[in-house]
Each structure stands twice: as structure tokens, then as C-alpha cells.
Amino acid sequence: MNDLEMYREQLAICDDRIIDALVERNAIVEKIMAYKEKYGMAILQPAQEAKQERRLEEKLKDNKYREEIRDVFQRILRNSKRIQARKLFSYNIVLIGFMGAGKSTISDYLSTMFDMRLVEMDQEISEREEMSIPDIFATYGEEYFRNLETKLLKEMQSEKNCIISCGGGVALREENVVEMKKNGRVVLLTASPETIYERVKDSDDRPILNGNNNVEFIAELMEKRREKYEAAADVVIQTDNKTILQICEELITKLMELDGR
Ligand code: S3P
Questions:
Q1: How far is the CA of 35 from the centre of ligand 1 (A)?
Q2: N or C: which end of the chain has fewer CB within 10 A?
Q3: Residue 193, ligand 1, Cβ within 6 A
Q4: Span 210-214, mean pLDDT?
Q5: What domains lie within the chain, and their CATH numbers?
């Protein structure tokens, strides 16, 4: 055997060790999940995640291959998140609720923590049309926009393990709700009109509120929509005075309860 052949054999042995370590690591991730579930512990533990990252940084500090190894670890950590997400949610998580209820913020956090694909409906529609939402309303009217919402929602039925953040009007069409429920669980986020007003008062990208951005109008429109939102929801979460982490934990717990876990 020449040197080159010997090195290749050593490399193959190394790869086998990496595979074995990864299999072992994934099995430990599953054990941690099962432990948290058994003892009703919080699934999301950002502080622990940060600690793990600091430990890695410390370990890699003087390593010649620091960048390369860090890159691989980012992948490994993302995959761990995906293992957790797949175990917890075999369906799409569909967030509905009034403008400013926190759908985008919560979706964004969840998609990061579980490495799940995020579909922000307004953003997706806006990108496809190459126009802002207010411009779509102004140019083609609300009905046109609502039809785009329905079309996108139908497309999402071929996906699973995604987070879908709906625009505030999506759950108002019965046809849309039927689509959402085909392979998704619907989570309604609520907040008081005062909280909503505080969250949306400085934005002008919501044509429905244009010229009507005040607590009274919000309260009235919210009341008109309430019944439809509630009828669509599998789970309801009230978001006033809660942190993003608290809301996400409540969401996960309630979804797990739906599955009888
Ligand atoms: C709408 C809500 C908006 C956007 C559009 C219409 C509504 O989404 O889809 O301006 O009818 O409530 P957000 O709830 O994300 O603001």
C-alpha cells in the first residue's frame, strides 16, 4: 500500500467515526426531547442553546479549522432542530389573527428555533406580484388580493412542517379555512385593541387601516371578525403582556395537547 492509499483509508475511518458520533448525537437529542416531554419541561430553551454555542466557541478558539468546524456545527445544530420539529409537528402550523396580533414575530421565532420553513403570506404575495400590499389593493382591488391569498394557501397543501403566517384577512374566507385544516393546525393569536393599536400605529402598509388607524376602528373591525377567527382556530393564544418565548411555549404546549401528548 502506498501513502496515498493509506491516507484514504484513514480518511474513511475518520468518516465512519463522524457518522457514528452523529447517530449517537441524534439519539441523545431524541432522549432530551422525550425527557422534556415526560416532565412537562419547556421545549424551547434559548439560554441553553446560547450556553452550548459559547462552549463551542471556547473549544474552537485556537483551532486552525475554526471556521470550517463552526460551519459544520451550524449544520448539525440546525438538523437537531429539525429532528425536534418533525417529532413535534407532522403538519403545517398556520398562524391567524388580526393585524398586529404578532403572527409575523411568532412565526419568525418559531421558524428559527425549529429550523422550519416560514411562509409569510403577505411577503410571498408581494414578491410574486412585484408590488407592495397597498399597491396591490390600490391597483387591482381587495378581491384580487384575496384570491391570491386563496391560491397561495392551496399551494401550501402539498407542504408539511412549515409555518404559515397568514395576513389578517385570510381566515375570513371559509374556503381558506378548509384549506388550512387539510394538513395544518390553526393557531389564533389575539390581543386587545389597545395593544394592537400600539403595535400598528406607526406603519402605513395596512390598507385596511388607512385613515382609520385608531383604537375604536380596530375594536369594531376586530369584533366583526372575531367569530370567524374563533371558528377557524384549533388553538387560541392571548398575547397581551407576554414575551415571545412565553407565547411560543404556550403554542407548543397547546399543539401537543391537541395530539393528546
Ligand atoms: C389584512 C392584513 C394584512 C394584509 C392586508 C389585509 C387584513 O396582514 O394581508 O393588509 O385584512 O387584516 P397582517 O395581518 O399581517 O398585517
A1: 40
A2: N
A3: no
A4: 88
A5: 3-88 (1.20.59), 92-258 (3.40.50.300)
